[in-house]
Amino acid sequence: MAMQFELTKEYIDQLRDHIEKSNEVEVFQLVKDLHPADIAEIYDELDIDEARFVHVILDNEVAAEVLVELEEDDRERFLKILPSEDIARFINNLDSDDAADVIGEFSEEKQEEVLSHINDLEQAGDIVDLLHYDEDSAGGLMAKELMTVNENWNIMTCIKEMRKQAEDVDEIYYVYVVDDNNVLKGTLSLKKLLLSASSKKIANIINTDTISVKADTPSEEVANIMDKYGLVALPVVDALNRLVGRITIDDVVDVIREEAERDYQLVSGITQDVESTDSAWVLTRARIPWLFIGLFGGIIAALVMGVYEVDLGINPKMAFFIPLIAAMGGNVGVQSSSIIVQALANNSMGFEGIGRKLLKELGVASINGIILSTVIFIYNYFFSDSFALTLTVSAALFSVIVFASMFGTFIPMFLNKMKIDPALATGPFITTVNDIMGLFLYLMLARAFFSIF
Amino acid sequence: MAMQFELTKEYIDQLRDHIEKSNEVEVFQLVKDLHPADIAEIYDELDIDEARFVHVILDNEVAAEVLVELEEDDRERFLKILPSEDIARFINNLDSDDAADVIGEFSEEKQEEVLSHINDLEQAGDIVDLLHYDEDSAGGLMAKELMTVNENWNIMTCIKEMRKQAEDVDEIYYVYVVDDNNVLKGTLSLKKLLLSASSKKIANIINTDTISVKADTPSEEVANIMDKYGLVALPVVDALNRLVGRITIDDVVDVIREEAERDYQLVSGITQDVESTDSAWVLTRARIPWLFIGLFGGIIAALVMGVYEVDLGINPKMAFFIPLIAAMGGNVGVQSSSIIVQALANNSMGFEGIGRKLLKELGVASINGIILSTVIFIYNYFFSDSFALTLTVSAALFSVIVFASMFGTFIPMFLNKMKIDPALATGPFITTVNDIMGLFLYLMLARAFFSIF
Question: Which domains does chain B have, with CATH numbers?
Answer without folding.
Answer: 11-136 (1.25.60.10), 148-249 (3.10.580.10), 280-452 (1.10.357.20)
